[in-house]
Design brief:
- Helices cover 39% and strands 14% of the residues.
- The longest helix is centred in the middle third of the chain and has 30 residues.
- By secondary structure, it is an alpha/beta fold.
């Protein structure tokens, strides 16, 4: 982040779209890092590896003529990796006998709806319900497949369609871009296009009444899982830092909503939750948080490994306050080991 000029250090996410490509950038690790992902349409390179080394020069050539802030981001990048996105038709048959598929194995998708991991979570929930409901495993897997194929196929098609929306040729001119953004990316078109996706409502599971879940997570990994818990009948309380809150509040395609701390990324992951701000570094905040823990059944956090320990809320300390508490810590590479401190970013 310290390589960037002041104007690009804001805790905001940006989406840059143009003819034949798009680029997103967003801060990570409390603003210490700025991640950047650029997508360009081409058919001369098809290596799927995440570890192929790219170069700033190649990336700059791909985005030649784009906004100067895009060029600045590219020049400031300490390293550039590259991989290919491949389009694949969703499978219509997932199960054979007592074996089945779920997640990317049956509906691999481009990332332009940000729904790949989401659909995997939904698959797991529906699969579990079918196995509970039907005594015959073969019938259970068949019912699971029937329940999921249409929705996941629509998601794969929607992600592919967004490629052309992000890369529209009309974006080449200011006049064309203004008209295109109004017709495709204003509030009503977005609602009409994605209402089916975000209003997916399954019958509630038989969760015990009164389950209370404390959501200390940010961005993607965790917030969506808690959203699912809420749909299943749990009371979910989102606990945020009063100074900054969830970074996702500032992420989304609408600058107006981002400025109001109600970015579309945040809204999609946190609907239906209760909300409270608590300063976990202040003595009064610590006392309030201990009261919340005492009343909770589940706590999930996705801080960097060691953060909760330093705050005085290690797993052992929280279990001492509430022996029945289920504690889940999400991290990219585990809570210990040589990669534990590495940042990660995904919807898991």
């Amino acid at each position: 982040m310290d390589r960037l000029p002041e104007r690009l250090r804001d805790m905001l996410g940006w989406t840059w779209i143009g003819p034949g490509g798009h680029l997103v950038n967003y801060p990570l690790r409390g603003g210490k890092l700025m991640n950047m992902i650029g997508t360009i349409e081409r058919n001369d390179w098809q290596v799927e590896s995440w570890y192929t080394q790219g170069s700033n020069e190649e990336c700059a050539r791909d985005f030649a003529g784009w906004h100067e802030d895009v060029q600045t981001l590219i020049r400031a990048a300490p390293s550039v990796m590259k991989w290919a996105f491949m389009e694949r038709a969703p499978r219509q048959t997932w199960s054979v006998g007592r074996a089945t598929l779920l997640g990317d194995a049956c509906h691999a998708t481009l990332p332009f709806l940000a729904q790949g991991a989401v659909m995997s979570i939904e698959d797991g929930v529906v699969l579990g319900r079918c196995l509970d409901k039907y005594a015959d495993p073969v019938e259970a897997l068949h019912r699971y497949e029937q329940a999921r194929v249409e929705r996941t196929s629509a998601m794969v098609r929607g992600a592919k369609e967004n490629t052309s929306r992000f890369h529209e040729s009309a974006l080449a001119t200011e006049e064309g871009a203004i008209a295109y953004m109004e017709s495709e990316w204003s509030r009503d078109p977005i609602r009409d296009r994605y209402d089916w996706l975000y209003r997916y409502d399954r019958p509630p599971a038989d969760l015990p009444a009164g389950i209370r879940v404390l959501d200390l997570t940010n961005i993607l990994s965790g917030p969506y899982a808690h959203y699912q818990m809420g749909l299943l009948g749990a009371e979910v309380i989102k606990v945020e830092n009063p100074k900054d809150g969830d970074l996702a509040r500032k992420l989304g395609a609408s600058p107006v909503l981002n400025a109001q701390l109600m970015g579309t990324s945040f809204l999609a992951q946190n609907a239906g939750k209760l909300s409270v701000t608590v300063d976990l570094k202040h003595p009064e905040g610590k006392a309030l948080f201990r009261d919340l823990v005492a009343s909770a059944d589940v706590l999930v956090e996705n801080f960097r490994p060691g953060v909760m320990d330093r705050l005085g809320f290690s797993h052992e300390a929280l279990r001492a306050a509430n022996p029945g508490l289920i504690y889940c810590a999400i991290s990219g590479f585990g809570q210990n080991g040589p990669l534990a401190g590495n940042p990660a970013y995904d919807q898991i």
